[in-house]
Each structure stands twice: as C-alpha cells, then as structure tokens.
Amino acid sequence: MRLWSKALLGTILAMAADGATAQSPTPLPRNTTPPSPQNMPGDYFDIPQSAQLKVPLGPPASGRNSAPLSPPAPSISQKLAGLAAQTALASCAADGYAITVAVSDADGRIKAALAADGTRDNGLYMAMHKTLTVVGFHMSTLQLREKIEQDPSVLQQVKPNMSLLPGGMPIWKQGVLVGAIATSGASAYVEEKCAADGIASIIGQL
User: Fold this and answer.
1) Coil, helix or strand at residue 178
2) Is 97:195 a contact under the CB 8 Å cutoff?
3) For residue 41, is it within any domain?
4) Residue 117 lies in a domain
5) What's 162's domain CATH number?
6) Assigned domain for 188 exists
7) pTM (2 decimals)?
8) What is the pLDDT along the chain (206 residues), one digit of tens a residue?
9) N or C: which end of the chain has fewer CB within 10 A?
C-alpha cells in the first residue's frame, strides 16, 4: 500500500510539473515601435521599471581605448554636428532670436541638439521633426512646401512625425546627404539663414 502511494504521488507530481511547463507563458518579442506616430525613431521604452532594477551594471570603468571613434560613412560626426548647432544658435542670437536647433545624421538620428534660454517647451522637438522631413525628402522644409504647392499629392508622402514648417535644411558632402540641421523659434527665412550659417561653419570639414 505504501509503495502504491509513493508511485501515485510521483505520478501526480510529474503531471503537475508537465502542466506547469505547458502553461508557462511564452515571452513576447520586444515592441520596438514608437508609441505614437509623433515620436522620433527609436523613441520606445518598453522595459518595466522592475526589470530595469535587475539590469547588471557591469564591471567598473577602466582605462579608455586609445583608438579613436569614427562614425559610419556617410554621416556627420558628433563634433561637427555640435559646431553647426552652436553656430546656428549664435547666428539667430545675433539677430535677436532665441531658438532651438537640432542636427541629425542621414538616417534621422539626432547628433546634437541645443536650446537657447527662453525658448518654447516644444521648440527642440519641433526642430527634430524638421530634420526628419529633410532626411525623408532630401530637401529643405521650405523647398518641400513649395513642391507641395505645385503638386498637392506629395503631401500624402509626408509622415505624421514630419514637420512642414520652414527651418530644416540638408547637409551635403560631395552630393551625398550626410545629415540635416533644423532651427525653430524665429521667422521662416531667419530660421533658414541660421541653419545655413550652421552648415557653412562645417562645410569645409565634412
């Protein structure tokens, strides 16, 4: 009787283990889609805070690698993007405008972003959305507006996260698009002038 009870107990435990295995949920793939069409590329954050606390910190920081970091080509380096942004900011400041400026690479990834004191809360994001328009159409936002006026069907190609406001301009290197710069916070033609000044400050170093 005791042996039979042990055998029965073992069978029940094995069945329970199989059931638990069968009922365990399958991990869902990570959602890498931006939460809304208005978000920037890569702007998703689907890691629960409880999981964030379990992420290992890795080893302590040690000596730095002496090999220089080089951006993939074609692209604009972070150093030049920062210089272009600072020049555009200073150009508009000289005209009495406090603006925001964003510089991206040819894929729309932000390389530099600056906001002068006293700018609008959404100004920086507006500049970022303009850079998406530029890299998407390979032309300035003002040129795109003119193109849409000539051919309204082009508007159907504009994505929800793109801005049609002037101030965004492409950055070219030997006929290849390497980035975009956009300003926000001044009048249309002043924004373009400041963006163009930013490009002019780095054109010889691209």
Assistant:
1) strand
2) no
3) no
4) yes
5) 3.30.450.150
6) yes
7) 0.71
8) 444 455 544 554 455 555 444 454 565 565 555 556 566 656 655 666 677 667 677 777 776 666 665 555 578 999 999 999 999 999 999 999 999 999 999 999 999 999 999 998 888 999 999 999 999 999 999 999 999 999 999 999 999 889 999 999 999 999 999 999 999 999 999 999 999 999 999 999 98
9) N
